[in-house]
Design brief:
single chain, about 325 residues, alpha/beta, Spore Coat Polysaccharide Biosynthesis Protein SpsA, Chain A, eight-stranded mixed β-sheet, 13 helices, about 45% helix
């Protein structure tokens, strides 16, 4: 058994079929697929039962990262691939990974490209795309300032367990924390020239969540992670994390300004200045950068637009 696909889910009946069908499950015996269900009450388990090759565990858990940790412990494969129940694997993903395993036996992680898409009336619109070799490298800079793309990365099971798996301290941002630990540890990653993951942006997504109810919680967790690494990594790596912390504090202050939450805005200002004395300039620059778009949208912020689109189901 080479690859174990792990899909955590809770009431994912509306999207699970598409996720499972995207796997295009091979009959060679090199891949297994585990469904780690958190006691769904919709059609999730009924959909899973339609696919006899699946291995299903349904029991209460402490969140999505607890589910993925459970799957990693139960997995029989040498490599782990995390597929969320509302996303897809592009055609050819598994074969690209199997080829890379054979050609790069020294690798501890294998990374493909990823894209995020949002459904609109006329089809799927691309939100972001990461395919460049430099963008995919496992570095503190890329994980802090770019897209972490945990799902586009195949990781050796023994390495995942040695890192301690996903921390349950974070409910939404533990994937970034894990990859920062991997980057600091100097894991050997191999990049492949293939797009291996497609994220679905929607109103309930915990990963593609700009403008939805989870975005503020994610922001707070990322700030907590950034503060932790500012106090624990080498000076040569702190520059990227400090830039990330500055960006997060600017984003938080902008959110507070949008809702006229002055107390929150001052907290972000104080937090930003504590690690970057030039933070007020970054905040002012973001206000100026956002002003033309704000006026073009008729006095509505980007997050307000995204929130209304989510509520309308667009």
């Amino acid at each position: 058994m080479l690859i174990s696909i792990i899909t955590p889910c809770l009431n994912a009946g509306e999207t699970l079929r598409e996720a499972l069908e995207s796997v295009n499950f091979p009959s060679t015996g090199e891949v297994e697929h585990l469904i780690i269900d958190a006691c769904s009450t919709d059609g999730t388990l009924a959909e899973a039962s339609r696919h006899p090759y699946l291995k299903v565990l349904s029991e209460p858990d402490a969140g999505i990262y607890d589910g993925m940790n459970k799957g990693a412990r139960l997995a029989r494969g040498e490599w782990l691939l995390f597929l969320q129940a509302d996303d897809w694997l592009p055609p050819g993903t598994l074969q690209a990974y199997l080829n890379a395993i054979v050609s790069s036996p020294e690798a501890q992680m294998i990374c493909g490209g990823a894209e995020a898409v949002r459904k609109q009336v006329d089809g799927w619109k691309n939100v972001w795309l990461v395919t460049g070799d430099l963008e995919k490298e496992l570095t503190v800079r890329n994980i802090a300032l770019g897209e972490p793309m945990i799902n586009a990365r195949l990781i050796r099971r023994d390495v995942f367990l040695a890192l301690g798996g996903f921390s349950l301290e974070y409910k939404l941002a533990s994937d970034r924390d894990l990859l920062l630990r991997a980057a600091v540890a100097g894991l050997g990653q191999v990049g492949i020239n293939a797009t291996t993951y497609r994220y679905r942006w929607h109103s309930g997504s915990s990963t593609m969540n700009e403008g939805n109810a989870l975005s503020e919680r994610l922001l707070c967790e990322n700030i907590q992670i950034a503060k932790h690494y500012l106090g624990s990594i080498s000076e040569s790596e702190k520059h990227s994390v400090r830039r990330w912390h500055t960006r997060l504090r600017v984003q938080g202050a902008m959110n507070a300004l949008e809702s006229w939450d002055i107390a929150s805005m001052w907290r972000h200002l104080a937090g930003g200045v504590s690690s970057d004395p030039f933070w007020p300039m970054a905040f002012a620059g973001e206000i100026l950068r956002s002003l033309p778009g704000f006026l073009a949208r008729g006095g509505r912020t980007r997050s307000q637009i995204l929130r209304s689109q989510s509520e309308d189901g667009k």
